[in-house]
Amino acid sequence: YVSKMWLTVQIALWGTTLAVLFAIPFGLMCARNVSPVWLQQPMRLLMNLLRSVPDLVIGTVFIVAVGLGPFAGVMALALNTGGVLAKLFSEAVEAIDRGPVEMRRLPLLFTNSQNMRQFGQEFLRPDFTHLDLYVSKMWLTVQIALWGTFLAVLMAVPFGLACARNTAPVWLQQPMRLLMNLLRSIPDLVVGMLFLVAVGPGPLAGVLAIALNTGAVLAKLFSEAVESIEAGPVEGVRATGAVRLQEIIWGVLPQVAPLWTSYGLYRLESNARSATVLGLIGAGGIGQTLFETINSFGYNQVSAIVVVIVVAVSLIDFLSQIIRSRLL
Questions:
Q1: How far is the CA of 190 from the CAs of 212, 214, 268, in angstroms?
Q2: pTM for the model
């Protein structure tokens, strides 16, 4: 178990390293204030595409290209995480005033073309015969993401305040940080399986798994936002004789609300993809349909499902950008 876990950590390290190298130039090309429109818009569409395609599908493509093994996992993580980081890097720019993981197999991406050709011939001809089913399953997946994110925000607000150094005493802050670290470190699939045992297969297990994991992530982000606020407004509220709760309501929340909103909208977009993956274990949504289609080697149908997922996640991203621009 330890050796396999160490290999998993190496896959994550290599994937994240390649993703960062990938995200730096593409993040700059996606930023409005450093890239011309003719370059920025196509790059944003490309990054939306990479973010919206589930890891499982990208991993399948690389398995076809280079075969089974850790290298396919490295490349799948690098491509998907690169798309996510490129978005975050571009938003940050816009806000300014060969080893165990088999890297030696990289050339197979260009030499093992027969498998890729066969895969591409089917994948590039999507079969929309069951489009109504795919759309209904995708809508269920979006609802799972919406409910999961909503419950996560409700959980993250009190826990985020309890984890912040400037709003919570040490005896409360440290245990809450440890609890949030624990919840964040457990993969969604594991949490989803626990809820599957508790409530049975269906969308509720997916909602609860997303809520628990995302709530812990948002609690960390919310606490960091609270710790970075200006002390002046809080001291001004305190000078009026306000109690601790009134200081938080009138001195803290107005300063962190824009950041909290941005974090929540980003996690909603991310959870739409996470809900797809949770469907693989029976937690409802389009993920189960995708998994069954991949197992039956119906790449025409897989392509159609991916198109539906890409369109849905892109719409969520577009709507979140509109909401952010109006609220921030």
A1: 11, 14, 20
A2: 0.67
